[in-house]
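Database export, one record per block. Field names are fixed; values are copied verbatim from the stored entry.
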Amino acid sequence: MLRILLAFILAVQPVLAADLPDLGEVSRQYFSDQEEQALGRTIMRDVYTDPRYLDDPETETYLNQLGYRLVSVSSRNQRTFTFFVLDDPTINAFALPGGNIGVHTGLLLAAQSESELAGVIAHEISHVTQNHMARMVAAQSQSYWPTMAALALALLASRSNPNVASAAIASTQAYSIQNQLSYSRDYEREADRLGYELMTRAGFDPRAMSTFFERLQRASRFYDSSAPAYLRTHPLTSERIADMEARSESAPYRQVPDSLEFQLVRARLRAQENTPDDAVLAARSVLKEKRYSNETAARYGLVSALLRARRFREAEAEVQKLPEGKNSDPMILQLAAYTAFTAGNLPLALQRYQAASEANPGYRPLQYGYINALLTTGHNGDALARVDRQLALYPADRRLWRLAAQTHAQLGHRLLSHSAQAEADALSGNLVAAIEQINLGLKAGDGSFQDMSAAEARRREWQEAEKSQRKK
């Protein structure tokens, strides 16, 4: 049912637009920043528990780095964005309330260059920065926002029962909204124009946006009712493509090479396709026949496939052929350390994690792996010191809080363990679970006066926030 919700939200985003309307307080009169953030947290809670959510730190980190490279050159970059991936072969991307932007694995694999991927993400970022959701609500009326929120939550709650979802749609304004998609062209053109500016300022190929959309449009001629998901939620016209081409033709030619991380992520995703043995055969075939644009990425994909097939000795042999040393890409260093860890060679894993973490202190997937390896080998004190340092830098990282919960649990710190898990639950949008965890921690009663006071203050904060959510 999440797919229905995503399609619905994308459908309502571009409704009832005007050409470059006012972006000020009018658009927030009926849909405040606080309301949008609250709905965004509620939706993300269900995204994180959906089976298609790809909980892969390396892929998610790459997408966030790419997304923030684009956001950083926007004149409207004051808000926080979250970029995440769904394991779905369809070509799609979407913007949700609260600055949450999702990308399907199908899009990551279908993009023929990093600039093409950047063009699509820049388009979605522009939907957010231009407050398209708030402007749509303001155009409808004050009574529309509660209706939309209720529909969104009903769809999310009814994932296991399609009949309930259909009833929810039928009982709201969804059909009338979907019938107004002709109004979406203004919003889509605006997102095209601003997305083009973002990707150009960020140093990507300005021609990539029109190239990708034109290829999608050509592909759609071979579909009937099953057109690519992106075209169903982002109506594409020849006029829009012509506008994109006109902009790019006036820009100076720029050949932009793909980053190694873009190639590594795509190889990583391909290694997860089909059965493990088939993935290994496919990866070996690519290397043997030299059907690759980057040999390092192709070999990285082979190691990933071998690990998936639990062929650890072969994986280690292939790791030896990858670039090594402190100047190597952190994704490669993470894979090398993880290979040793999964093969049970814990001393080598710790050695690799330590060297790679020192060389790349800001690459969080390495820190996750290193902390987990420290916990596995009983180095709980070292794990606590490392997770505390990371949380001081990234206090909104739910994965770090989960690792903190595990670390405190192994050290016998019950209050701190439950408190850390509560922080992870809250950051995942689940305030009810956060309150339950903090209650368990307070009942344990093994914390200091300062720890108990901090936990009680957090509980009051989350209780107020949860009560406010229930009132909407």
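Remark 1: The radius of gyration is 24 Å.
Remark 2: The chain has a mean pLDDT of 83.
End of record.
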